[in-house]
Amino acid sequence: MPSKQTVNKLDREPAPILARPLLKWAGGKGQLLDKILPKFPKTYNKYIEPFFGGGAVFFGLAPEHSLIADSNPELINLYRCIAENPEGVMHFLKGFQNSKEAFYEMRALDPTNLDPLHAAARTIYLNKTCFNGLYPTLCPSIVTRTARLSCGLESSK
Length: 157
Ligand SMILES: C[S@@+](CC[C@H](N)C(=O)[O-])C[C@H]1O[C@@H](n2cnc3c(N)ncnc32)[C@H](O)[C@@H]1O
What we know:
Elements: E1 8-9, H1 33-36, E2 43-44, E3 47-49, H2 56-61, E4 66-68, H3 73-84, H4 86-94, H5 100-108, H6 116-129, H7 145-150
The structure holds S-adenosylmethionine (SAM).
């Protein structure tokens, strides 16, 4: 039986949302929160989210104890960097330009060759500046062909 201190409680008025998803994410559950959150048990020990994505449910629930995961390494790098050094991510973001040329240059970078903070800022930048907020290599199975064409990742021929 978990101790009283380790139990997350939902037997209270819904708390004001303190944090929101950093990214716009295909399949994100942000618009369904008012239907999803009431279905959670009133008390639970640890919230485990294996398909974190943009984390709309996590941020809406704001659990005291949690374990989050995702198969997307760019996403996990982003959350690690934001948790450990948000100013470091901001430092890189402030240096980025919002132009077509800058977008394509940024997209061409291999995130595995970048400083993790730089890669995290790149993930945010591409997510915020690409077509409809849906950057295809971050969610390839869901993003439509229209988005892939628009981002130049697929030829119309
Ligand atoms: C629709 S998003 C999740 C939305 C999110 N839970 C929310 O609250 O809005 C789905 C996520 O699952 C991840 N994913 C897909 N298959 C996976 C797997 N086998 N293991 C871990 N993560 C996976 C994807 O990378 C994607 O980020």
